[in-house]
């Protein structure tokens, strides 16, 4: 009995010791398991094909990489630190260059906002890589350094240079060809072919022609195209000895329109027929402008209405009012939301890019004709390229 009690007492003494020992071993093993294995081969280098405002970093992947581990990159302009400014932070399972490295780009302009790009290029930058996870932090002992250098050309976009040179050569060739042959073929645009008919009708009836700009300013490309078309129409009206009225909602557009119409009358040899009061400002707000123009159409009943430019909700109101007066209506806009209303209410409608082609179509000037022809050829080449590319993808999928 004494021997049994003695063994039991010895066991009671050994059990806490053994339990403490095994707990210690388990903690050590757990710490070893959670311990981060630092990455190696940490490098910094200039980012290619940029203006010099960034630096690229790369480092070898670590066996500890996982969704729960992050890489933090700290930057300094001093080799010895302090590295207290965080430049970038990523998950360790992202930004793979290949199966062996992580690659990231640090935007120096964002980190040192307000500094001149030339200052950024002259300064060497030092980077420290830190791994952070459940096992704590692990600082990679290597300090990487690099400067940002500006490149004159972005070689990664060489194809843009090829496209620019090809298209420029095509434009120059087309202009030269148009000068030798001004009657080169252009696709028929019904709305523009009807301009002479519409102006002739106004002349026979002794009624005015009304030209309505869109609501955008001279900064809009559609307004610029509308003013160009106005110049061609004004010249024909001067030759036909008809009356032209141009309504505006922007004083700058009005001033430009007055000069354009005046120049057109001068080119037609009829400067005495020009009346500045026929190009006037109606209203600066949208719906007061619509009400005023609708009133003009109702009272004076123009024989022909031109709606050229960029339009908003007023498109249908103007077109329906003009249709009620029995006028021939020719519209042109690149506002695709308003095209259905013009197509429904007007006799002819210039759609999209036809608005920009109208000036060349009406004037037959070699410079404009050549540019327009080159654009059409360029579009045909792009369409053919896309078709061939899709066909190549289809063939590759089959085989």
Q: What does it look like?
A:
There is one protein chain. With 399 residues, the protein is α/β, with parallel strands linked by helices. About 3% of the residues have low confidence. The radius of gyration is 38 Å and the shape is elongated. The protein contains 13 helices and 13 strands. The strands form three sheets. The chain has a six-stranded parallel sheet with strand order 10-9-8-11-12-13, sandwiched between helices. It has a four-stranded antiparallel sheet with strand order 4-3-6-7, with no helix packed on it. A three-stranded antiparallel sheet has the order 1-2-5. The relative contact order is 0.09. It has three domains: 104 residues, Immunoglobulins (Immunoglobulin-like); 61 residues; 178 residues, Rossmann fold. The chain starts with a helix and ends with a helix.
The geometry reads as elongated
Integer tally of domains: 3
Q: What profile does the largest beta sheet have?
A: 6 strands, parallel
- SS strand fraction: 15-25%
Q: What string, H for helix and E for strand, traces the elements in order?
A: HEEEEEHHEEHHHEHEHEHEHEHEHH
């Amino acid at each position: 009995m004494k021997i049994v009690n003695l063994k039991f007492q010895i066991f009671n003494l050994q059990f806490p010791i053994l339990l403490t020992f095994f707990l210690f071993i388990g903690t050590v093993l757990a710490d070893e398991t959670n311990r981060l294995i630092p990455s190696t081969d940490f490098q910094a280098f200039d980012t290619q094909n940029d203006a010099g405002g960034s630096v690229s970093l790369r480092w070898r992947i670590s066996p500890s990489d996982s969704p729960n581990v992050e890489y933090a990159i700290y930057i300094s302009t001093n080799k010895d630190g302090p590295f207290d400014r965080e430049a970038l932070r990523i998950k360790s399972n992202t930004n793979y260059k290949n199966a062996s490295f992580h690659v990231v780009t640090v935007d120096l302009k964002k980190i040192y906002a307000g500094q001149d790009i030339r200052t950024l290029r002259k300064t060497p930058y030092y980077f420290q890589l830190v791994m952070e996870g459940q096992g704590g932090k692990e600082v990679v002992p290597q300090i990487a350094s690099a400067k940002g250098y500006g490149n004159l050309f972005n070689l990664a976009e060489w194809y843009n240079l090829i496209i620019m040179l090809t298209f420029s050569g095509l434009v120059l060739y087309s202009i030269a060809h148009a000068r030798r042959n001004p009657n080169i073929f252009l696709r028929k645009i019904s709305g523009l072919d009807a301009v002479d008919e519409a102006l002739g009708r106004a002349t026979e009836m002794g009624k005015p022609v009304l030209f309505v700009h869109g609501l955008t300013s001279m900064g809009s490309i559609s307004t610029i195209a509308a003013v160009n078309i106005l110049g061609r129409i004004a010249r024909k009206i001067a030759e036909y000895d008809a009356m032209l009225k141009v309504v505006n909602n922007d004083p700058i557009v009005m001033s430009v329109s007055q000069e354009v119409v005046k120049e057109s009358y001068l080119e037609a040899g009829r400067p005495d027929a020009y009346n500045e009061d026929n190009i006037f400002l109606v209203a600066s707000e949208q719906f007061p402008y619509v009400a005023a123009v609708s009133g003009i159409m109702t009272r004076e009943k123009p024989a022909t209405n031109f709606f050229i430019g960029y339009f908003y909700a007023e498109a249908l109101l103007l077109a329906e009012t003009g249709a009620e007066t029995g006028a021939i209506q020719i519209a042109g806009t690149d506002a695709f939301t308003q095209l259905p209303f013009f197509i429904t209410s007007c006799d002819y409608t210039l759609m999209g890019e036809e608005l920009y082609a109208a000036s060349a179509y009406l004037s037959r000037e070699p410079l404009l004709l050549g540019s327009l022809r080159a654009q059409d050829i360029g579009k045909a080449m792009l369409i053919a390229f896309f078709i061939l590319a899709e066909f190549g993808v289809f063939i590759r999928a089959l085989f």
